[in-house]
Amino acid sequence: MNRSCFLAGAVALATGLALLAGCAPPDGPPGVVVDKTNPWSPATKTRRYFLTVATADGRRTQFRVSLGDYRHCVRGAHYPHCTKG
Known about the structure:
Elements: H1 2-23, E1 31-37, E2 40-41, E3 46-47, E4 49-54, E5 60-65, H2 67-72, E6 78-79
């Protein structure tokens, strides 16, 4: 009984960690926020949130962020500093 409970707990923990890791969007490069988009996906009925930043060397990079980061980072803000607000 003890061994099966331990195994079930370990599987539940591993599954939970895998789900949490899958939800964290990747971080983008530091820079100034120049654009924000949040397209609607009719297939999944969800929105995804993207920021576009201009890096110090002039490149523009678009990447996915969480809703909280999307709300905190207005155009002209410095990413990732704006996410700490």
